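Thanks for the sequence, V.! I ran Peptidoglycan bridge formation glycyltransferase FemA/FemB family protein right away. Repeating your input here for the record:
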Amino acid sequence: MSLRLRTISREEHLAFVRGLPSISHMQVPAWGDVKAEWRSESLGWIDAQDRVVGAGLVLYRQLPKIKRYLAYLPEGPAIDWFDPDLERWLQPMLAHLKAQGAFSVKMGPPIVIRRWDAAAIKEAISAGHARRLRDVEAGWYEPRAFEVADRLRRAGWLQGEDGGAGFGDVQPRYVFQVPLANRSLDDVQRGFNQLWRRNIKRAEKSGVEVVQGGYDDLPVFHQLYVVTAERDRFIPRPLSYFQRMWQALNAEDPNRMRLYLAYHEGEALAATTMLTVGEHVWYSYGASADHKREVRPSNAVQWRMMRDAYALGATVYDLRGISDTLDENNHLFGLIQFKLGTGGQAAEYLGEWDFPLNKMLHKALDLYMSRR
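Predicted structure:
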């Protein structure tokens, strides 16, 4: 059965999103408003009954001086990835994007390949016989994911490099998630390691108060975020980015983005943003002060977000990106070490894939990105 592809309205796209348990927060229509430096378009796959059966948010980034674009579908599109005839979904998309002036297409199939329980990862670290997550036997596999990868390669798609640490893609290939489905909050907390439970109790005894903030509290968050950027040596986004993010996402759904702040003796010590689409909740951005770390505001704010995610009916609390390194001497090891304490699972996605519509321009972009 063939499928038609066309531009769909924001309302059609959002109706499709609401009909799913969840999709990536980067595949909702409002994400195009967040990424103001890109042009955005909602694509819909239409069946014979004129129903929208798949959707994708495309972000177009123009090359300097010429009207040619990189077309990017972050963590999308939302289609039937396990359809044996995957080409009936992807060929119309490539034809449409080429007609729009795209020279290259980048997408991130939202497919988890494998999962590792925290206990297995901790055992591998303590035994010292694993340098990377892939050296550890996964507790769960999705066999169909490998079939999808084979279909993509045969169709001419190129898999992005993982850079040896899981960060070669634009979006993280490895993430850490806490399952919430069919568990009580007591079950979730019992899954924490002793250090996490102790830190949460310490924050409570110290009088740390976690509150849900609003738009007017974003400058407080941003001050802490700048401190964090200096400490962790990354370039911070401007306050205006988070203000635009808040306005765009919450105009679409009042629960799409939340802000949490952890106060101690009237001073904000930690702050986080949380995103929700359907049954999936993401810890998006985190920030913390350099002082009073002993009162454990970061653990307190994470536990509050998990409880609120549970109250919203979420089936997963997603702590987002980790490196796949298990080497304690690697500077990225701290990412997985902190998140392991939640007792959740590491997950590996299929990663990002490129289709060069113009091989010369695609190669030039690859060269430029490798030199950045």
